[in-house]
Amino acid sequence: MGEKLKMLLKGVDNLYPHNTEQKYPRIVEKLELLWGTIGMGRYFNELLFDERGDREGFPPEVMAELFALNSYNESMRPSRSAIMQSWADGGELERLERFKKL
Prior knowledge:
By secondary structure, the protein is mainly alpha-helical.
């Protein structure tokens, strides 16, 4: 269990959620499925913030692991300026500006 997530976190092994895996194995399974996808951020929000108002919450050690993973996930996402720069480098931004003028 969690082998895929261990592989995905290679190099930052200290972020592996051992407590979460022990107490909530389904969460680790879903993290493995969603890691690197657009749905990952949404899933972290669902886990970390109770929007229904009726959840008990996670133990502190699990919450700490989830927050650390969320922070790492966020840090791996490219910034808007990096995306715009990659577009500019490939000429896509110029083509987009021309298209807007049509």
